[in-house]
Amino acid sequence: MNITELKEIAKKVRVNIIEAVAAAKSGHPGGSLSVADILTTLYFEKMNIDPKNPKLEDRDRLVLSKGHVAPALYAVLAERGYFPKENLKLLRKFDAMLQGHPDMKSTPGVDMSTGSLGQGLSAANGMALSAKLDKKDHKIYVILGDGEVQEGQIWEAAMSASHYKLDNIIAVLDYNGLQIDGSNEEVMNIAPIDAKFEAFGWQVIKIDGHDIEAISNAVDEAKLVKEKPTVIIAKTVKGKGVSFMENQAGWHGTAPNEEQRKAAIEEIERGEA
């Protein structure tokens, strides 16, 4: 699949995100929009998966550690064919398949139930260790939030992944600079994040998280790394694609009203493909 096609899919994913969160009248659009290009590239180009067989034994796995951006994951899974897109309008509804955070028991394509920030990398370590013991060569992808890496458990897991030489883990840090209470620098500064991961024994790759070609190349590079885990630090824009949401911490967990929904979708659809 070429870059232009992936960009078009990413636009559809962003529209799906806005539609789902607006229908739910709650959710997390800001971080969902910032990670859309990353998830699109992984699910449509890089990951070994089969939507018709979501439990394929040798599939690559993805752990959405920042589980509150489930609308982005659901939007991508729907576009990829794991379930009908109509389900997106039932986000966060009682007894519906798509809850506010990923649930591996009810949603096809979800490999790990997440939501409590900081725990996803530990779960990925377990998957990666299991794969090593079973002599499997599939990859475990982990999507981390930059506010999330303020959690101590992330660094315990980072230390463990390096200690056990888990080169089958590829983490992607959605580095949009904002969290629910403001900027990372104001709440708890994580810089220099590249040096921190390097000190914990990780291979570090830094990219523009909205450049699909750069995302693709970074994943290819990470797949070649041996004897250590890799983190791709992807600089992103919170609310990417919707000008009134971009770089605004207030859109971390606020749903658009009807007027904002229409304006957001119009802007996404006329954006550069």
From TrEMBL:
Keywords, comma-separated and alphabetical: Metal-binding, Thiamine pyrophosphate, Transferase
Positions of the Transketolase N-terminal domain: 7-261
Requisite cofactors: thiamine diphosphate
EC number, as in UniProt: 2.2.1.1
GO MF terms held by the record: metal ion binding; transketolase activity
InterPro entries, A to Z: THDP-binding, Transketolase_CS, Transketolase_N
One Pfam family recorded for the sequence: Transketolase_N
Gene3D superfamilies with a match to the protein in the record: 3.40.50.970
EC class (word): transferase
Family as reported in the entry's similarity comment: Belongs to the transketolase family.
Protein name: Transketolase 1
Gene field: tktA_5
